[in-house]
Write a structure and sequence with these properties.
CATH architecture of chain A: Beta Barrel
Number of helices of chain B: 3
CATH topology of chain A: Porin
Shape of chain B: elongated
Largest sheet of chain A: 18 strands, antiparallel
Distance between the termini of chain A: 70 Å
CATH class of chain A: Mainly Beta
Number of domains of chain B: 2
Order of helices and strands of chain A: HHHEHEHEEHEEEEEEHHEHEEEEEEE
Oligomer: heterodimer
Number of domains of chain A: 1
Number of strands of chain A: 18
Order of helices and strands of chain B: HEEEEEEEEEEEEEEEHEHEEEEEEEE
Number of strands of chain B: 24
Helix content of chain A: 10-25%
Structural class of chain A: alpha+beta
Radius of gyration of chain B: 29 Å
Chain lengths: 450, 367
C-alpha cells in the first residue's frame, strides 16, 4: 500500500513544483525588488497594468520596451520552503518533525509563474505543459503616453491533506490504516494570456490620469480532486481515484483606471483600480481526466507515467462519473479577475533616490490571480552610476512580511533588472513562506530619435 | 476647475463601472429535476449519469443487446415502491428504466449523498433499496467517501432505487467474547440403544436449528438474539469501533447422533452465515463480506465428531475439519446450542510481521 499512496502524493507535489502563489501576477523585476511597492513612481511599460496614469511622459520617457524573461512566485502555507523540499524528497524516510507545523487542514501551495517558466520546467521534468503552450515571455512597450503589455502566466494552487503529508514523510504504516485520508486534497490551475492597453494623459503640470483596457484570453482553467481511497481490508487492496476537469478557452475584458497627482515637487500620490469593470467567460465545453490506481500497477511504473495517464477527454454530462461532477463543482467559482485597489506615495530625491509607499486591497470577488492579503509595502531605489540598488518590505494581512531586494544594470538605454523577495509569517497560526524571483531586460529612450 | 473636471469625470465613470459585479458562471449541466437522461448502452457496456447525482456503469456483458437506458429523478420518497427496511435518504431516489431489463452482471452505481443529512452513527448502515421487495437491502461491496459524499455500490436489477439507512443490522460487540462452557449434548428422541458395560450407544432424532434473515417467514436476526458478533482486540485496534453486520443471515441445522457414553460421535447438517461487515476507515466507509458455509460430507452425509471441553470438532465437512466452540443451555422446554464460528483477517504490521484478528460469530441453534 505504501507504493500506492506515495506516487499519488508525488503527482500532487509534482504539480506544485512548478512555480506557484497567493499573489497576483508576477510583478516586474523592479517591483519584486521593492516588495511590490513600485506604484506611484512606476513608469514606462511597468506602469501599463498597475498605474496607467503614469504613462504620461515622465522623465522624458518617450519609448520603452521590457520583457520578463523568467519569473515566478511560490507561497507555502503550513511549512517553510526548505521543509517543503524535505517533504517532497522524504520518500517515507523523513524527519518526523516535518509534520509538526502542518496545519490540521493541510498544506497549501500557491504559485504563479511566467508561462515560459512553467513550460520550461515541465519540459525539463517530462511532464505535461501546464501553460497550455502559452510560453511566450511577458513583454510590453510604450510610445509616448500609450503602451501595451502582453502577459502569459500560469497559476497553480494545491492543497494536500495532513494525512497524505504524513504518508510522504513516514511512508505507509499499515497500523495506521484507519487514519489516512485524502480529505480536501485538491488542485486548481489556470493559464491566462492578457493584453493590456494603457493610455495616460497629463491634464495639467501636476495631475495625470489614465485608463487601461485589458483583453483576457483564458487558455486553461482546471480543477482537480483526489478522492478517498477505497480499501479492501480482506485482500489488502487499495485503490484511489483522482479526477480533473478543465475548460479550454475563454475570453474577458477588464478596465483599469488611475490617477497621479504631484503634491509637491518630486512628491507624487497615486490611486488606481485594476479591473474597475470586468467580464470573463470560459468555454462551456469541458474536458475530464480521471484515473484510478491500485498498489500493484503504481508500484511498477514511473511516476510520470501516472501523471501522463491523465488524458483529457470530452466531458459528457450524460455519461460522466460522479467524481468528474464533484471535481467540476467549483470550476467556475469566482473564475474571473479580482478588482484591486491601490494607493501610494512616491518621493524622488534630487539625488535620484526614490522612496515609495503603497497600500493595496482586493475588493469584491474574483479568484483568478488571487489578490492575496491586503498589504502595505515600502520600497526604496538608490542610483549609483549605471546601477540601481533596490529594496523593500511589505506587511500583509494575517501577519506575514515580504522582504525584497534587487538591482538594475543600465548601459545607456539598455537595462537588466533582477528582483527577488522572501516572505514569511503566519496566517491563522499556520506558517507562511514564500519566494519570488523575476528577471527582466529592456530599454528606455528618454528622447525619441536620439 | 480645469483640473477638477477630469478628476470628477473619471471618478464618476469609475463608480458607475465598479457597481457592475460579475457573478459566477454556471456549469453547463442540466440540473432540472425533471430532466431525463437517455443513452443507448450495448453489450460492450457503457455509462449513463444524471447531473443530480447518480452514475451507472454497465460492465461488458451486462446487457445482452443494445438498449435505451433512461435515468430520472424519482418522486417523493413516499412514492418509493414497497416498504424498504430503513430510512430513505432524500435526494437519492432515482428511476432506472426499463425496470424489466435483465442485467447479467452487477451494474456499478455511484450516488451523491449529502452526508450532513445522515448522523455519524448511520453512516455505516448505508445500503441501496430497490423496488424488488423480495430482495434485501443491497449492501455488498458498498463504500462511501465521507469527504465527497459519493457512495459506490452495485445493482443487480434496474428500476427504482434509493440510498437507505438500513435497519437490518447487528452491531459488533467491541468486547472480548465470553468463553463458551461446552456441556453435555443430550440425545433427543432416543430411537434405539445398544452396547454393553459402561458403554451405552444411542441414536437420536431432532436437530438443533437456526434460521434468521430478511424476508417472509424468516425472522430478522437482531430481533431473535440468534446471532451475535464479537471483534477481537486486534480488530478494534485497527478498525473503527463502530462496526455493524448488515443483512445478517444464518441458516442451518446440526443433528448429533451415535452417542457413546452420552457423547455424540457423529453429526449431520450444515451451517451458513452471511452478512456485510461495515466499518469506517479514515474518511471512507468500507465493507467486507462475511460468508461462511459448511456442510457435513462424510459417509452418508455425516461427519465424525469429537467433543472436547468447550469445543466440537467436525472431521468431515465441505471446509475440511472444523473446530467450533459450543455451549449447551436450557431454553424453555427445549435446548439451545450456541456455536461459535470465527472469521480471521490478517493485518500487516509496520515491521513486516502480521497480526491475525478474529471476528467471532455466535449462533444460537434451538430444538
Amino acid at each position: 500500500m505504501a507504493s500506492a499512496i506515495r506516487p499519488l502524493l508525488a503527482v500532487l507535489l509534482a504539480f506544485m513544483v512548478a512555480p506557484s502563489l497567493k499573489a497576483q501576477t508576477i510583478p516586474w523585476a523592479r517591483s519584486v525588488a521593492m516588495a511590490g511597492a513600485d506604484f506611484a513612481l512606476t513608469r514606462g511599460f511597468a506602469a501599463i497594468e498597475s498605474n496607467p496614469a503614469n504613462l504620461y511622459i515622465q522623465d522624458s520617457v518617450a519609448f520603452s520596451f521590457g520583457s520578463s524573461l523568467q519569473g515566478g512566485r511560490v507561497m507555502v502555507t503550513g511549512a517553510g520552503l526548505r521543509e517543503l523540499g524535505d517533504i517532497v524528497t522524504a520518500a517515507g524516510g523523513g524527519d518526523p518533525r516535518l509534520l509538526a507545523n502542518i496545519p490540521e487542514d493541510g498544506l497549501r501551495i500557491d504559485a504563479v509563474s511566467e508561462g515560459s517558466t512553467a513550460a520550461r520546467l515541465a519540459r525539463a521534468l517530462n511532464l505535461p505543459d501546464p501553460s497550455g503552450n502559452a510560453d511566450i515571455p511577458t513583454f510590453g512597450f510604450t510610445y509616448k503616453n500609450g503602451g501595451i503589455v502582453v502577459r502569459n502566466h500560469t497559476v497553480i494552487s494545491a492543497l494536500v491533506s495532513r494525512e497524505l503529508i504524513d504518508l510522504a514523510v513516514h511512508g505507509f504504516n499499515p497500523e495506521k490504516i484507519n487514519e489516512y485520508a485524502a480529505k480536501n486534497t485538491s488542485l486548481r490551475s489556470f493559464t491566462l494570456t492578457t493584453a493590456t492597453f494603457g493610455l495616460g494623459k497629463r491634464f495639467d503640470p501636476r495631475f495625470a490620469a489614465g485608463f487601461g483596457v485589458r483583453y483576457v484570453r483564458g487558455r486553461k482553467l482546471l480543477t482537480g480532486r483526489v478522492f478517498e481511497p477505497e480499501i479492501d481490508v480482506e485482500n489488502k487492496l487499495l485503490s484511489a481515484t483522482a479526477a480533473t476537469v478543465e475548460a479550454r478557452g475563454g475570453s474577458g475584458l477588464g478596465l483599469d483606471a488611475g490617477m497621479t497627482y504631484e503634491l509637491r515637487p518630486r512628491l507624487y500620490a497615486s490611486i488606481a483600480i485594476q479591473n474597475v469593470w470586468q467580464r470573463m467567460y470560459w468555454s462551456k465545453k469541458l474536458f475530464v481526466a480521471q484515473s484510478s490506481f491500485d498498489q500493484n500497477e503504481i508500484g511498477a511504473i514511473d511516476m510520470r507515467e501516472i501523471i501522463n495517464r491523465f488524458e483529457a477527454i470530452d466531458f459528457e454530462p450524460d455519461g460522466a462519473t460522479l467524481e468528474a461532477y464533484a471535481a467540476s463543482a467549483d470550476l467556475f467559482e469566482e473564475s474571473f479577475l479580482p478588482r484591486v485597489f491601490r494607493a501610494g506615495l512616491g518621493w524622488k530625491a534630487s539625488t535620484g533616490t526614490e522612496v515609495q509607499l503603497t497600500g493595496s486591497k482586493a475588493l469584491g470577488e474574483g479568484a483568478l490571480i488571487p489578490a492575496g492579503s491586503d498589504r502595505i509595502a515600502a520600497g526604496v531605489q538608490h542610483s549609483w552610476r549605471g546601477i540601481r540598488a533596490r529594496g523593500g518590505v511589505a506587511f500583509e494581512g494575517g501577519g506575514s512580511r515580504e522582504f525584497g531586494a534587487g538591482f538594475g544594470l543600465y548601459w545607456g538605454a539598455l537595462m537588466l533588472d533582477l528582483g527577488g523577495s522572501w516572505t514569511n509569517g503566519s496566517l491563522s497560526g499556520a506558517r507562511i513562506s514564500g519566494l519570488s524571483l523575476s528577471l527582466a531586460v529592456g530599454f528606455v529612450f528618454t528622447e525619441l530619435g536620439t | 476647475m480645469h483640473r477638477a473636471n477630469p478628476l470628477v469625470a473619471l471618478s464618476a465613470v469609475t463608480a458607475v463601472l465598479a457597481s457592475c459585479i460579475q457573478e459566477d458562471q454556471s456549469l453547463p449541466f442540466e440540473t432540472d429535476p425533471n430532466h431525463t437522461t437517455v443513452r443507448s448502452i450495448g453489450p460492450s457496456g457503457g455509462r449513463i449519469s444524471h447531473p443530480l447525482g447518480i452514475s451507472l456503469e454497465f460492465p461488458p456483458g451486462a446487457l445482452e443487446r443494445a438498449a435505451q437506458i433512461s435515468l430520472s429523478v424519482g418522486g417523493s420518497l413516499g412514492e418509493f415502491p414497497g416498504s424498504p427496511e430503513g430510512t430513505l435518504i432524500p435526494g437519492t431516489f432515482f428511476q432506472i428504466s426499463p425496470a424489466a431489463l435483465e442485467v447479467h452482471q452487477p451494474v456499478a452505481v455511484d450516488v451523491q449523498v449529502l452526508s450532513d443529512s445522515i448522523t455519524s452513527k448511520d453512516l455505516v448502515r448505508l445500503g441501496i433499496a430497490t423496488e424488488n421487495i423480495d430482495e434485501p437491502i443491497t449492501t455488498k461491496g458498498l463504500s462511501f467517501d465521507l469527504t465527497s459524499g459519493i457512495m459506490h455500490g452495485q445493482l443487480t436489477a434496474l428500476g427504482a432505487m434509493a440510498v437507505i439507512v438500513a435497519d437490518n443490522a447487528l452491531p459488533v460487540n467491541t468486547e472480548t467474547p465470553p468463553l463458551l462452557g461446552g456441556g453435555d449434548i443430550p440425545p433427543a428422541g432416543v430411537s434405539g440403544a445398544s452396547g454393553s458395560g459402561a458403554s451405552t450407544n444411542t441414536t437420536t432424532t431432532g436437530a438443533f436449528e437456526i434460521q434468521c434473515g430478511h424476508t417472509g417467514r424468516v425472522r430478522r436476526c437482531f430481533g431473535s438474539g440468534s446471532m451475535e458478533f464479537w471483534a477481537s482486540g486486534e480488530i478494534q485496534d485497527r478498525l473503527s469501533s463502530d462496526m455493524l453486520v448488515l443483512n445478517p443471515l444464518a441458516i442451518g441445522s446440526l443433528e448429533f447422533s451415535d452417542f457413546v457414553n452420552g457423547v455424540p460421535t457423529t453429526a449431520t447438517g450444515s451451517l451458513s452465515v452471511q452478512g456485510t461487515l461495515r466499518v469506517q476507515l479514515g474518511q471512507a466507509i468500507t465493507s467486507f463480506e462475511v460468508d461462511d458455509v459448511f456442510v457435513t460430507n462424510g459417509p452418508g452425509g455425516k461427519s465424525a465428531v469429537t467433543v472436547s471441553g468447550g469445543s466440537i470438532t467436525l472431521h468431515q465437512t465441505s471446509k475440511g475439519e472444523r473446530t467450533i466452540g459450543f455451549e449447551i443451555r436450557p431454553s424453555g422446554t427445549g435446548e439451545q446450542l450456541i456455536v461459535r464460528g470465527e472469521r480471521t483477517v490478517e493485518f500487516d504490521n509496520d515491521d513486516g510481521t502480521k497480526t491475525t484478528a478474529t471476528l467471532f460469530i455466535d449462533l444460537r441453534l434451538r430444538r
